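Risk register update: the risk that structure generation would not scale has been downgraded. Supporting records follow, first protein first.
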Amino acid sequence: MGLNKVMNNDIIEKIVKTAHHIYDKDMILGKAGNISILDDSGKFIYITASGTDFKSLSYNDIIKVNINDLSYVSRCDKVPSMETSLHIGVYKNRDDVKSVVHVHSPYATAFAFSNKRLRQLEGFGEITGEYIAEVDYYPPGSKKLAKYASEALKNEDKVLLKDHGLITVGMDIDEATLLCEYVEGIAKTQYITHMLNL
């Protein structure tokens, strides 16, 4: 299948603004993390390029990818994030999801690397279980990570990737980003509570 080379600047602007917001909130470490939006046609996603620095991310760091054959348009010879297949898997499984955000925020990621489970707290919609769902460790960018993470997100809007980070989804990029902030907030609260109880 061919790829429509016309880029949607409104979508790109949303991703750029969100990336800068995430960086300003200290929710990204180095160049680890990725953001995507599914366009209105449902045929293409816009995703951050591999090795993107969110602090200086610009329009040229956003890649348009065909969800069926993975062909893509890049303005600066960059390639899509290594987690592109994970994002596409989520979109194929969830008709209600239009954005995916993956971060390595410090407190949530600390729980992902620990043997502690992260409890769900009130403050963001329905509580679906006692703990935030987790996915076992698989190497970043691997087919197994894409498969198991996208499967876990069929019934969840937020998942901790063991020894890796956090991934959230939403009906738009604002919802997915707010959910990241919520999980990071409850992780910080639970970490402080644990330290106070020592």
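Supporting record for the second protein:
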Amino acid sequence: MSRRRSNAGDGNMSLTPMIDIMTTLLAVFMVTTPMMTSGIDIELPRAGTSTMTGNDHAIQISVDARGNYYLLEQKLSREEIVKRAIAMRGENPNLAITLSGDTHADYGAVMSMMGSLKSVGFQRVGLRTQLDNK
């Protein structure tokens, strides 16, 4: 008795369904990624025509039009933000801070935050603005 094996297929895999799925996923991610940007909705002032360069990792602090302070997206008091920044500096002594103030924010609120950070030893505190495209 001899057994014969039958080859039901030729062993090739069709890549077309996988390519279709990957193309669909790519399109979905391309459409949804810009919608996932995080941050506080503030209108930055326009100033200058150059940008900062470098590979600095910075803490993002924002001041909205009402004078509220935010560390990333979390609303906190000025004192609490300074305490957290000091704790973060313990892990990274070269930590920079980027301060974003809304165009309609109280100038005193922005400068108060900057002064508080400078008084505890932060030397690398910058103000974030939009490029002036004139």
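The first helix runs from residue 16 to 32. On this basis the risk owner (M.S.) recommends closing the item.
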